[in-house]
Amino acid sequence: MTDTAKASDAIVEIEEPEASPWQSSPAARFAAEFAESPIAVASLVLVIFLAVLAVFADFITPQDPYDLLQLDIMNGVLAPGEATFDGSQTFWLGTDPQGRDMLSAIVYGLRMSLGVGAMSTVIALTIGMSLGVLAAYFGGRVDTVIMRLVDLQLSFPTILIALILLAALGKGVDKVIIALIAVQWAYYARTVRGTALVERRKEYIEAATCLALSHRRVVFNHLLPNCLPPLIVVATVQVANAIALEATLSFLGLGVPITEPSLGLLIANGYEYMLSGKYWISFFPGIALLVTIVAINLVGDQLRDILNPRLRR
């Protein structure tokens, strides 16, 4: 046996352990890339925590701030940390002039703000996504009509459109959602159209067309799934924008009714007391609104960095 053969027999090949299917899955890779940013992870945890608070507000909060039987006017405008006269309850964030516990009111307002923002975003995403992908796929007059509507909608300030709609429709949670849908859908339509135009020219779409598949199957089974990554980023950011816009409308008195207040209306209710030193009535709802919007935007920024190939390292 030659020296080369002996050397080759002496080599011990060390095989690396194969990655498990879970470790090599797209979801695992996505989670690993998302976890590279501790700030984004902390923001995601915070968003989930706020969502859980909002969903289980009835069981978590010490008081239902909109049950008149639980309110006592004698507890009105108590400073943070003060207790009731009999010491049975401590208001850690103070109370408003009606005796509502501000901590409970903020959690209930958070539920309203998150609910309105999420619902309006989902509906607007569905409408804009459908119209945008149809415009890119069919082209021609369909594309022209849809995109001219998008240009018309985007040419006006969002706050102006929302104010006009709410002035015509009146107050109400459903009216606010309609107004938010009207000012959001165009963003999704333009985003998905740009992505779909690129995907429309690729070979897999041509192959699906050559196989005589129906337009519905080509659009919803092949074209649309490949347009989702940028939509996820836009939708995440638009949730924060919808919450901010709803808070603005409620602060101006055109948003949700006083019986179902959001964070914006809580801020408006305490605005007149700011100069008298009773800052907590507006300050703490404002902090909750700010933290919510910033956390959602930070999650959206990380999603953009992961899902945008041009920003990948």
Query: Structural class, from helix and strand content?
Result: mainly alpha
Strand content: under 5%
How many helices does DSSP assign?
Answer: 13
What kind of sheet is the major sheet? 2 strands, antiparallel
What features would you highlight for this structure?
313 residues; two-stranded antiparallel ribbon; 2 strands; elongated
Written overview of the protein:
Strands 1-2 form a two-stranded antiparallel ribbon. Helix content is 67%, strand content 1%. The relative contact order is 0.12. The protein has helices spanning 3-10, 26-34, 38-55, 57-60, 102-138, 140-154, 158-169, 173-200, 203-210, 215-223, 228-251, 263-271, 280-307, and strands at 82-83, 90-91. Helix 5 (102-138) crosses helix 11 (228-251), helix 7 packs across helix 8 and helix 11 (228-251) packs antiparallel against helix 13 (280-307). It has 13 helices and 2 strands; from the N terminus they run H-H-H-H-E-E-H-H-H-H-H-H-H-H-H. Residues 10-17 have low confidence and may be disordered. The protein is mainly alpha-helical.
Which SSEs are present, and which pair or pack?
Blueprint: H1 3-10, H2 26-34, H3 38-55, H4 57-60, E1 82-83, E2 90-91, H5 102-138, H6 140-154, H7 158-169, H8 173-200, H9 203-210, H10 215-223, H11 228-251, H12 263-271, H13 280-307
Antiparallel strand pairs: 1-2
TL;DR?
This protein is an all-alpha fold and 313 residues long. The chain starts with a helix and ends in a 6-residue tail after the last helix.
